[in-house]
Write a structure and sequence with these properties.
single chain, 71 residues, mainly alpha, 0% strand, (Mediterranean fruit fly) hypothetical protein
């Protein structure tokens, strides 16, 4: 059995750099999601004003972000 077949049978795909990069990016993304989740738990934000403003601006052609800049 060759080394690459042995690695595949063990579940290690280090011979394909694209899969290694994909795994690395997925791990980084997971860590960023965890950090964001913890930040939201520590510093909660009251979004009721944002959603109230968005509800009032439904009949305009502006997005809520643009509507906030004109107020």
């Amino acid at each position: 059995m060759t080394a690459s077949n042995n690695a595949v049978s063990e579940g290690v795909l280090t011979d394909n750099p694209h899969l290694v990069l994909l795994f690395y990016l997925a791990q980084r993304f997971l860590h960023e999601l965890i950090k964001s989740y913890r930040l939201i738990q520590v510093v909660p934000m009251d979004m009721s004003g944002y959603y109230a403003l968005q509800h009032l601006n439904l009949h305009t052609q502006f997005t809520p972000h643009i509507a906030l800049t004109f107020i």
